[in-house]
Specification:
The protein has 525 residues and is of the alpha/beta class. It has 18 helices and eleven strands. A hairpin with a 5-residue loop joins β10 and β11 (463-469). α2 packs antiparallel against α3 and α9 crosses α17 (475-489). It is globular.
Length: 525
């Protein structure tokens, strides 16, 4: 295997095979990704997906190569796996900005728990990815994202990659790293995964520690993998999941008791006999010309699931919109949670959300940040807070009853009913955090695990994701079914390579649609 020419679409398994066979070294792989970051992220199409590049990655690679040469075996399950991490997660010795100009040049003295676990398993932190200020948008607008203030979608440079894990989504899709880490409170892993053709896993909250990761809604915050394959997501989860005494919420590990690897058996995963609830009410409307391109892709994908042996069962969640409104904690709890996190770090110039807001140190297109800053100082300041907590339990029981009544393995629906919006529409406020038709709040506010899996491409070449939601602590089953869906749709395709020496950026790239598995089905229609 030659590098860097063959770096695209590598998997952890293939990389480890390359190390063992001597086809390439960790240093060679890391250098290949660093070269791509220069030619694709910092120049050429200038995706603007990475805030900070590690200045120790090559030294870390040399240490792993030396260890492998000395012991003849890989050191850890993620030996030599380059990973890009959302800049919401603290990295010792490496700048962490939380997407905000107010962070200055803050460099944490300690790793977040997930970073420590990744390093212990042999992973190499390649860099930190862009994100909107303090994770307060489903789009990519950020005061820290260079002169443009946005990250570009690698499938169409005029479109948004989704937020708030925008940089991780764009970078992993463009093969600037082997795998990536994001964070999800209301869809921040799944939206960019859907719009960038990735697998994005939101776990049951606190299955993965949040220590060292900035807060939005503590009871919903979930770190998680963003990868090009389900198997790679499972391999990362093996390392990330588990009890952390510094995060008391992770005591749920006593309930989970996962035995063995989450990746076990994924090679043989099948949809045969799996019961998939289809939440039709949240699918695109056929009479809406803007939603129909996503609807067309999803109809093909559902047919592929049936052909692979899945049993589709139409389900409905009565009064869903009302339940989502009543269980929303963002404007009740976030101001306190964010202030507590930033206030606990005296070396971090941010200080608090209140300070950032009062001084205007944030991107202009962050309505969500402004609304959170205008909310109550503590949840008790919301007269509806107790009602919201009580409604959450009722909402959970309602949806669990649907799983039980229909004997479902998962419930399926699109992450969003529209493809990635244009950056122009985002800046013109045609689309905002409050009117873009997304469905990711369903799993978030239920505290259920969910995963976005590539379902196909619209006729204009934009990725579409299918979200699968399982019951709490059932990540093993969720990943198994996601792998079955991945096999059935075979929908992951990289963006077409750019001419790296181009002096200008086209308004949108050209695409080669021939590998799109839905193309033949479209022709048959």
């Amino acid at each position: 295997m030659a590098l860097p020419e063959s770096v695209e679409e590598l998997t952890i398994e293939r990389v480890h095979e390359g190390y063992r066979s001597g086809a390439f070294t960790v240093r060679e792989l890391v250098q290949a990704y660093l070269d791509r970051i220069v030619s694709i992220d910092q120049s050429g199409p200038t995706l603007n997906s990475i805030i900070t590049v590690s200045d120790t990655a090559l030294d870390d690679a040399d240490e792993l190569d030396k260890a492998f040469a000395g012991e003849g075996r890989l050191i850890g399950s993620l030996h030599g796996v380059p990973i890009l991490v959302k800049d919401q997660i603290e990295t010792a010795g490496m700048r962490t900005t939380f997407g905000s100009i107010a962070a200055g040049e803050y460099v944490p003295t300690a790793d977040a728990t997930v970073i420590a676990r990744l390093r212990d398993a042999g992973a190499i932190i390649l860099g930190k990815t862009t994100m909107p200020d303090l994770a307060t948008s489903r789009f990519s607008t950020s005061s820290r994202s260079g002169p443009t203030g946005v990250t570009k979608n690698p499938y169409d440079l005029s479109r948004d990659p989704g937020g708030s894990s925008s940089g991780t989504g764009a970078a992993v899709a463009a093969n600037l790293s082997l795998v990536g880490m994001g964070e999800d409170t209301g869809g921040s892993i799944r939206v960019p995964s859907s719009w960038c053709g990735l697998v994005g896993l939101k776990v049951t909250p606190a299955l993965i520690s949040r220590t060292g990761m900035s807060s939005l809604v503590v009871s919903q915050d979930s770190a998680g993998p963003m990868t090009r394959t389900v198997t790679d997501a499972a391999l990362l989860l093996d390392v990330l999941a588990g009890y952390d005494p510094a995060d008391p919420y992770t005591a749920i590990s006593a309930i989970v008791r996962q035995e063995g690897s989450y990746a076990t058996g994924l090679g043989e995963a099948t949809l045969q006999g799996k019961r998939v609830g289809v939440l039709r009410e949240e699918f695109p409307r056929a009479d809406d010309p803007e939603e129909e391109p996503v609807g067309e892709v999803l109809r093909v994908a559902l047919r592929q699931l049936v052909e692979a042996g899945a049993e589709l069962v139409d389900v409905a969640i009565p009064d869903l919109a009302q339940s989502l409104d009543l269980t929303r904690l963002l404007f009740s709890q976030s101001r306190r949670d964010m202030n507590e996190f930033y206030g606990a770090r005296p070396d971090l110039p941010i200080g608090s959300l209140d300070k950032v807001f009062s001084e205007g140190q944030y991107h202009e297109k962050l309505e969500l940040l402004e609304l959170i800053a205008g909310g109550p100082e503590t949840p008790r300041g919301d007269p509806e807070y107790l009602s919201r907590i009580l409604e959450h339990g009722r909402f959970q029981r309602q949806v669990l009853a649907i799983f039980a009544e229909h004997r479902l393995d998962v419930i399926a629906f699109p992450d969003t009913r529209l493809p990635a919006p244009t950056l122009e529409d985002v800046f013109a406020s045609r689309w905002t955090d409050f009117n873009y038709p997304t469905n990711t709040l369903i799993a978030s506010q239920l505290h259920f695990p969910a995963i976005s899996v590539p379902a196909g491409f619209t006729r204009s070449g934009l990725p579409v994701g299918l979200e699968l939601m399982a019951v709490p602590y059932d990540e093993a089953r969720l990943l198994n079914i996601a792998r079955g869906v991945e096999k059935a749709t075979d929908a992951r395709r990289p963006p077409r390579p750019w001419v790296e020496t181009a002096s200008t950026i086209p308004s949108r790239p050209e695409y080669d649609h021939s590998p799109d598995p839905s193309a033949k089905l479209h022709e048959e229609r």
